[in-house]
Amino acid sequence: MAGDTSPSIGERVARRNWLPTILNICLVLLDIAAVTGAFMFSYRARNILSLFSIPSNPPGFEIYIPTMLLHVTLIILIFYISRLYHQPRVLSRIDHARKILGAVTVGAVLTYGVQGLIFKSTQFEVDYPRAMFFYAWIFSAVFVVLGREIYRIGRTWLRRRGILADNLLIIGVGKIARDITHRIKSQPDLGYRVVGVVTGRTKVKSSIAGVPVIGTYDNITSLIDSYGVEQVIIALPDAQRSELVDLITRCQRGNVDIKIYPDMFAYMAGDLIVGELGGTPLITVRDIALRGWKLSLKRGLDIFGSFFGLIFFSPLMLLTAILIRLDSEGPAFHIQERMGLDGYPFPMIKFRSMRQDAEAAGPGWTVANDPRRTPLGRIMRRTNWDEMPQLINVLLGHMSLVGPRPERPVYVEEFREQIPRYMERHREKAGMTGWAQVNGLRGDTSIADRTAFDLWYVENWSVWLDIQIILRQIMIIILRRDKNAY
């Protein structure tokens, strides 16, 4: 292609083979350094911290060197087995830290359990104090997480400059193809360089989301070679099986990775779940994760979280109520009917963030830079502080800390006619925050996408998922990344 600046095939292969390998080696060395440093630090901590009894005449560090080498070796081996050196491109810090903690725990426990057996009756036999084991376990996890965060920052820096970016070809021109293209372009740290989009048998568009349409299905093979494509995403959820087989066959060139993007709604909503019954594969069309004792557990967490949240934040909430009354005319709180569990309405409590006459002309959808907001309301909405009184709804049982965000009945009646399975999101209590919200779907965003995320949450609930959502929401507020909060 004239004017093409893509790397040659030779350059692409060289970069693909060597740079990721070098980075993986650096990551292993960084982990070794972190675990080694953590073990040495644990020796010092045992001698100076009063969490455990401080030994009066501690032995020298050199006698623990064999145990340290075993500790490091086992943890690095567990990391490898746990695929911590083969991470997906998109993995949240919380999930990453959880996997590291689990792997470090297994490695530390193995070290404590087998070091006596391995070194028994040898010159390396030594008592491994429980205090050192505890410190080595905790500090190893902390040091590795910090080291990997440094690695993440460095890798992101390289990806943003295109050094680690893989050439990506997208097949498809529909909504999903546009969404994928837009997301990849807006997140350069994913490490993709979209070289172009391939349309059907006939070239019908010149560009998709600012990326040129560079060909049709018939010349996919030559495009992969000429652009040095390393990744292919087939974004055709409605394609026939024979068409997908044909496309995959055309894309099978060298070391090209091929991904097929499913119908996002069907995938997120959990329409099909592959399972088994006595070795027989089954497809589950509908499953409910939150029932039985899990309902009691979730309610217990809600009561605990809302009770202590109200106690802890009550001074700030009282101050906010006073400031609202000083900022504009009207009450401090705004009570609005929302649709909750099983489609029953409930009175949702919020701090008033709009003028008292904001809905004089009838219900209105909140939009960016909404002129109805008060000066203080702008600040509260940017930080989601206007939602804090909903802790009262949680304590009373109207809502949960985490769940699908409730909508007003007038909008529910509209959405239930437009969005398939929309009312199924009301199988669980509404939440102060939810899976859709921490994934950027709030404010004036797609209701269909929100519904898909909400249904996925309903059918995949777990305590850990709730904790992850809460932690992610806190990080969004702290880092002020919620661009759709208005």
Could you name the key traits of this structure?
single chain, 12% strand, Rossmann fold, flat, 486 residues, disordered N terminus, 6-stranded mixed β-sheet, alpha/beta, 51% helix, 3 domains, 15 helices, two-stranded antiparallel sheet
In short:
It is built from 15 helices and twelve strands. It is α/β, with parallel strands linked by helices and 486 residues long. The chain has a six-stranded mixed beta sheet, sandwiched between helices. A two-stranded antiparallel sheet has the order 7-8.
What does this structure look like?
This protein starts with 8 loop residues before the first helix and ends in a 7-residue tail after the last helix. It has 15 helices and 12 strands. The strands form 4 sheets. A 6-stranded mixed sheet has the order 3-4-2-1-5-6, sandwiched between helices. The protein has a two-stranded antiparallel sheet with strand order 7-8. It folds into 3 domains: 152 residues, no CATH class; 96 residues, Rossmann fold; 181 residues, no CATH class. Helix 1 packs across helix 2 and helix 1 runs antiparallel to helix 4. The protein is of the alpha/beta class and 486 residues long. Helix content is 51%, strand content 12%.
